[in-house]
Amino acid sequence: MSRFSFLESMRCVSCKAEHNPTYILQCPTCGGLLDPQYDLESLRNLGPRDSGYKGLWSHHRVLPIWEEDSLVSLGEGDTPLIRARELGRHLKMRQLFLKYEGTLPTGTVKDRTSATAVSAARQFGFGTVSVVSTGNAGVSIATYARRGGLRSAIFCYQKGDPLKMAHMSLMATRLYTYEGEYDHVIENFDSLMERKEVFDGGARRNPYKHEGKKTIAYEIVEELGGGPEVFVTQSSGCEIFTACFRGFREMRELGLIDSIPRMVACQSVAANPIVEAFCKGGPVMPMTAGATIAKGLATGRPGKKGDWVLSILREWGGLALQVTDQEILEAQRLLVEKEGIWSGPTGASALAGLIKGIRDGLLDPEAKTVCMVTETGLTSPYPEPITHHVDANLEGISAALREVVSGPCMP
Asked: Domains in the chain, ordered, with CATH?
């Protein structure tokens, strides 16, 4: 296999059986999730990053695409890691950093996995990629499929956010809307993906897709000059959590960091099966997701990835937190007020969990902490604008400027 990728095999998370890296979605032996394995020993001197490439694909050595001609890119990756000084002071935290994914091509973290998913689809000769989405994933997969010259079939909840629906309808070969719960639709979708007639662009099983988000961990370590002590992220479909854990684990094996950060998974109270299992000491039990403003968190059946997240939390001393819609709205407000970042509700949910963890004494305010902000607010429903009339003459404009100069920064 080409050294463009140092991928060696696919290892089952459950039974540890190893398989050749063909297009497989789960372990042929036991049906478990697959964990891509790389030749890290050969990378110890070479390093994971190739300076000849930019963004996400600069880490191609630890990504599962070995055919360079199959790469699909819109310039994703290398998103800012922002030192949140004002927000940190507000929360009495010593070192708080925000990994802001809203600068990606479609405005969300989904672009990382869409890049590797569509590239893998091309690598394996697929002509069509498909996904069931609450919004962001559908936009991203459709966009990258269009960029890569592939067809896309996108299935989205009929009451999805209008801006995201419009974006999907422009990019997708076909946009189909459905009634009912995401969790029920995805189970039927998964059974059809076993036919391998189209490439599975979903988050539940495909190892070639979720690897793209692993680059978040690599970028964080490179930007910090070392690893964080705490890493806080959303955990609904569980891609970010499992992928970043794997990235930190690989970097520890490469000698780039000494330890894996404490992993914190945040869920909505309306869809909290991992939190329930973590707090009660039992397995992840499927539930019916309730309504939440953070539509990207409305997953009550995370499947085997939920089990994987729970095992990581227990083995590595992690923490699972649940947040209300009101706490998410407060986190959105603080991002704007303290750091000038406008995020959608799903994007701000990890910060809501972090705030709760700090206030409840569950997280150390002295720890170097990285919190994910996974999306821009520009694709979410807007709040009603607050405006003030001005007389468009010299006196009116002058009075308006004096009012702002003498007043507080935020209304």
From this structure: 81-107+210-373 (3.40.50.1100)
